[in-house]
Amino acid sequence: MDFTLPDHILKIKYETREWVENVLNPLSAPLEEEERIPEELVAELKKGRFFGLTIPKEYGGQGWSVVEWFTVLEEIAKAYATVRLIAHCMNGLFWRPLQQYGTEEQRRKYLPKLATGEIWAANTLTEPEAGTGKDINSKTTRDGDDYLINGRKWLISTFPDQTKLLYSFAATEEGITSFLIDLPTEGITFVPMEKMMGCVGPRHYNVIYKDCRVPASSILGEKGKGLDVAFGMLHLSRVSIAFGCIGLAQKMFDLAVAYAKKRSTFGKLLVQRQAIQNNVAQMATEIQAARMLAYEAAWRFDQGQDIVTNAAMAKMFAEQVVTRVSEMALRMHGGVGYTKAYPLERHFRDCRSFHFEEGTEEIQKLLIARKFLK
C-alpha cells in the first residue's frame, strides 16, 4: 500500500488548512449563534475548493480519488461541524448512488449541478419508529404512471434554502424502492426538530410525505432494491466519517498542546509535567493509528477492493479515538475548557455526533465479527 500524495494534493491540503482557519471559521459563527448558513459562507463554498471534488470529470467534477479527497476532508473536519457534514455528504454520500444506480439521463440531470453546488441533496431514510433498515414504514400507492408517497422521516440533514434533491425510500409492491425527488414538490413538509447537543447549525428536520406525487421515471435503480441504494452508500461513508473523527481529534489535540505550552500551575508549565506528557503521547499515537486504518480502507476502495470490514474498523476505532482525545484535551484545559471561552467546548460537543453517523459502534463490531466468525 502506498499512501503517498501527489504534490498538488498536498498543496491543496495546506491551502485548505489556511482557508479553514482564516476564512471558513470566521464566516461560520452564525451557524451556532443564529442557526443559519450565511450567504457569504455559501458563496465561499461554491468557489471551487469544496463541491464536486470526487465527481467524475465527465460530469463536471474534478475526479479525485478518495485518498486524495479524504486528506482534504481531514482539514475541513477541523472547522464547524455543519460545514464538515456538508462536505462529507456532497463529496461522498450523495452523488455515488446516481453514478452506480442512475440512468444516464439522471446522471446528466443532477451530477453537474451537484458538482458546482448549484443543488444540494439530502437523504430521507431514517424513520422514528423503524430506524434505517428494511422495516421502514413509508409506503407508496400507484396512481397511473406516478407514485404517491406517504410517511415520516426524521433526523434528516437538509438545508431548506439550498437542498433541491431528495433521496426518498418507501415501500412499493416489489419492496423498498428509492426515488429521486426535485424540490420544491407538493406533498412534502419540513418540520424542524429540537436543537441538538452539538453540530449546531440549521436544524435537522422531520420530513413528512403526504400523497407526494412522483413519476415512475424518478425511481433510482430497480424497484424493490432501494436498500441496495441506501446501504451501498454506507461503507465508503464510514471511511469518510473516520476521517472526520481524525480531523476533529487532531484539532482538539492541537488546541490542548497549545494551551499546555502557555498555561502554568504552581510555577510550572503544563507541558513540563509527566502526566501531561503521557496524555500527549497517548493522543498522538492513537490519532496516527486511526489515520492509518482509515487510509488503508480508502486505498482499498481506490483499488476496487471490498472494504466492508476495513470501513467498519476505521469508523469504530476513529470514533473511539476522538472520544478519548476529547476527554484528555478537556482535562488538559481544566475547568476553563468546560466554558465557551475556548473552542474546545464546541468541539467536545460536536464529536459526540460521530457515535451515530453511519452506524453505532455496536453495528461496526457486528460487521467486523461477522467477517472473522463466518
UniProtKB/TrEMBL annotation:
The keyword Oxidoreductase applies. Its cofactor is FAD. One of its GO terms (molecular function) is acyl-CoA dehydrogenase activity. InterPro entries: Acyl-CoA_Oxase/DH_mid-dom (IPR006091), Acyl-CoA_Oxase/DH_mid-dom_sf (IPR046373), AcylCo_DH-like_C (IPR036250), AcylCo_DH/oxidase_C (IPR009075), AcylCoA_DH/ox_N (IPR013786), AcylCoA_DH/ox_N_sf (IPR037069), AcylCoA_DH/oxidase_NM_dom_sf (IPR009100). Residues 12-118 form the Acyl-CoA dehydrogenase/oxidase N-terminal domain. Gene3D superfamilies: Acyl-CoA dehydrogenase/oxidase, N-terminal domain, Butyryl-CoA Dehydrogenase, subunit A, domain 2, Butyryl-CoA Dehydrogenase, subunit A, domain 3. Residues 224-371 form the Acyl-CoA dehydrogenase/oxidase C-terminal domain. Keywords: FAD, Flavoprotein, Oxidoreductase. Residues 124-212 form the Acyl-CoA oxidase/dehydrogenase middle domain. It holds the Pfam family Acyl-CoA_dh_N. Belongs to the acyl-CoA dehydrogenase family. Homotetramer. This is Acyl-CoA dehydrogenase. It comes from Desulfomonile tiedjei (strain ATCC 49306 / DSM 6799 / DCB-1).
